[in-house]
Write a structure and sequence with these properties.
With 169 residues, the protein is mainly alpha-helical. 59% of the residues lie in helices and 5% in strands. It has one domain: dinb family like domain (Four Helix Bundle (Hemerythrin (Met), subunit A), Up-down Bundle), CATH 1.20.120. Strand 1 and strand 2 form a beta hairpin. It is globular, with a radius of gyration of 16 Å.
C-alpha cells in the first residue's frame, strides 16, 4: 500500500507544529518561573552564525505553509516576520496550522509529479517533482528548523524532552 502525498505532508506538519507550540508554552512558563526576560530565550542561538530561536519558528512555519501550498497548486501566503514575543510565535504557528487545514487532501494527492520551483527567478532557483520536493527537500528543511528551535530551548534549560519534540502521535 502506498502513502498519499497528503498523508506524508499535512498531518506531519500539523503534528510537528503542535509539538513546537507545546515547547514554546513550556519555554514561556520557564522564562516566567526563572525570571528570564522572554526575549532572551526568543533571541537565543546555538552558535553566533545561526538564526535565533524565533527565526527558527518563523522558517519552520514558512516551510509548512509553503510546502503544502505548492503541493496543492495554490499561492503561498506571505507572512511578515514581525513576531517578537512568545504569543506572536504561537499566533504564527496557529495561523500556519489554520492555513494548511484549509487544503483538501484531493488538492495535494496526485502532486507527485507536479513541478515545484523554489526561489523562482533567482540564482538559487531549483525545480523538483512534487514527491522529490516533499521527501528530499521540504521535510528536511522543516525538521532542521523545528529541531534547532527545540535544541535552543533545551540548551537554555527549558525542560522539554523527546515527547515534547515528537508531540502527539
Amino acid at each position: 500500500m502506498s502513502i498519499s502525498m497528503y498523508a506524508a505532508s499535512v498531518p506531519v506538519f500539523q503534528q510537528a507544529l503542535q509539538a513546537l507550540s507545546g515547547s514554546l508554552t513550556k519555554a514561556a512558563a520557564h522564562a516566567e518561573a526563572k525570571k528570564i526576560a522572554p526575549e532572551v530565550l526568543l533571541q537565543s542561538r546555538l552558535y553566533p552564525d545561526m538564526f535565533h530561536m524565533l527565526r527558527q519558528v518563523q522558517i519552520a512555519c514558512d516551510f509548512a505553509k509553503g510546502t503544502c501550498a505548492r503541493l496543492a497548486g495554490v499561492d503561498v501566503p506571505a507572512y511578515e516576520d514581525t513576531e517578537v514575543t512568545f504569543d506572536d510565535a504561537q499566533a504564527r504557528i496557529a495561523k500556519t496550522l489554520a492555513f494548511i487545514a484549509t487544503l483538501p487532501a484531493a488538492s495535494i494527492n496526485g502532486s507527485e509529479e507536479r513541478q515545484i520551483v523554489t526561489q523562482p527567478g533567482t540564482a538559487r532557483e531549483r525545480t523538483f517533482a512534487g514527491q522529490a520536493y516533499l521527501l528530499t527537500y521540504a521535510l528536511q528543511h522543516f525538521f532542521f528548523h523545528t529541531t534547532t528551535a527545540y535544541a535552543i530551548l533545551r540548551h537554555n534549560g527549558v525542560e522539554v524532552g523527546k515527547k515534547d519534540f515528537v508531540g502527539a502521535n
